[in-house]
Predict the 3D structure of the following.
Amino acid sequence: MRFFSMLVLFLCSMSLMAGETYVRHPAPSPDGSKIAFSYRGDIWICETDGSNGIRLTVHPAYDSDPVWSPDGKSIAFSSRRFGNMDVFTIPSDGGMAKRLTWHSADDIVSDFSPDGKQVLFYARYRGDHYYRDPTLYSVPVTGGTPAPVFPDFGNMGKYSPDGRTVAYVDHNPPWWRKDYRGASNMDIRLFNLQTGTFSKKLTTFQGNDYCPMWAGNKGMYFLSDRDGFVNVWKMAADGSAKVQITRMKEKNIAFANISANGSLIAFELNGRLYTVSTADNNVREIKVQAPSDVTENDNEIMVLTKDASEMAVSPDGKQIAFVVYGDVFVMKSEKGKAQNLTEDNFREKDLTWSPDGNYLYFSSDRGGNYDIFRVSASDELPMYRSLHLKLDRITNNEAEEYGSSLSPDGKTLAFIRGNGELVLSDPDGRNARIFLDQWSTPQFSWSPDSRYIAYSISDNSFNTDIFIQPVSGGKAVNVTMHPDEDGYPVWTADGKMLYFLSHRSHYSNDVWYVYLTKADDQMTAEEREEAADSKKAAAKKDKKKEEVAVTVKIDFDDISKRIHKLTHLEGDEGAFAVNKDGTEIVFTANISGTRTLWKIKRDGSEMKELPGTKTVSDISWNKETDKYYFRTRTGSLKSITFKGKIEGFPYSAKLHTSRTLLFHQRYLECWRIMNNHF
């Protein structure tokens, strides 16, 4: 339903740009001389030829589903003015809207009673009806407590002209679900208000018959998809003599209503208004003229201090890049104003720095689908101070390309293409080659010497294992070899260990690790301690000595048998980060209903929750600062040491947005997800 809402918003915004009127929920007046409809989230009225469009409501909330009172003096409608759809009435010649319902459920207006004293509507979750299908209710126009019309499910109810009967639809699958055939298909029924009895089904088609519209007391129009498209049909009041009225063959009709005198049917088709004269079944497209000023500015300046969706700390720890509201920002890690590096109405994500800190890579859908871009400062200043930023497009492919990561030596860029290809290229995108071709999206990580990639992928049984494969080519080795889920591979910076998450024990995710060589795996605790002390002493003796380049060594024989479990908490452990030699690990865990940070040493000691770290979303370790950086659920940016010292990084992110372009962007994102994954 969310996808459909975005679609509606986009079409509305595009209609404004194109000068068109996207009409929804049309309803003819009782004498068939005017039509009420929803447009731009408000209720409007126009003549039956589309002229003289007048805006009736002006509230910024969404107003829809107008119906006329029998005397034509009032219009009932549904509005989201208080957070959910409630029933309102408003004089048809203008005035203040009156609220009739107050429940937290969505109340959708359906009809007026023939005497004009009641408004019929349908809603879910009222009273004892905590079910998916809605129930019909009526509420006095003077105000009062709504009452159920009958003790059964029903929606799209319509009173017969004599007020003795209610026609209704018995099920409620999405009206836009084309060609549905199943147990929940919509059929039309009758309920006798005087005797309190239900009739048999008026329709028995296996598809959808809905939206009943009385044509006097002896006949009824309705919508049906029985010819392959939703069209207007007519039948007798007992369900016999069904006749097709319209024959639309390209799109489906939606939201039809009939005038009280039975002379005119109005319906929506592909966002446009059509009418059917019941005298001769003549169908006309109506060009609605509804000129109006906008109710709010299209352009908006926003200053955000939270809601960052991701962050990436530069290798030297002096800059923090983050994404908020789809734009990429960078700021000084100590303090300072955040600079917007992209400032557009597209979505950017997947931040990663080059090892030298000169480039910031990210994915952007500014070209219609995700591609890889990078930004740099051409004036040799830090990005947060630079006035001359250079943006380069790295990839340009019809498939989605995202999740980029540079090798530690800065010579090779890895990224995901489509749903399962892992691609390697030069840092500028040239010489791209497919490293891994899979049907599922891999999680991957570079070895510290840039010679291997560890990745997790699913097999045809949807089981995920971790593999290590040489970048230069060669056989991929299954490191985990277990029928449960293994993923999130993380190398230690010294190249001696690989950490990962596994679901193999007690049906929950825990942190596991493997020593890459047999020699390291066989070391005793005392030997590890002596080696660590010797290393510290050497580093203290010669602080100026250049760090020796890491060379990863792997004994692949029986590597899956050298796996060790590190954490044993109840519930799932999540994202984690390790320090250089893998002796200190900080991870997320959900023990008491809130995901917080925990710490543990490689030998299993000092495991405890780190206070002040509630609702953590992700975490990374920075070699230069030896700190763990994380983002909270509210989008705040922070760091923590292994000892538990927390530092916050407040930001002020200023951006310019266009409401129209954002609606466009939302629609494109929803459509891309539906098109690529369903």
About this structure: DSSP finds four helices and 54 strands in the chain. The first strand starts at residue 24 and ends at 28. The longest helix spans residues 659-677. The two ends are 15 Å apart (CA to CA).
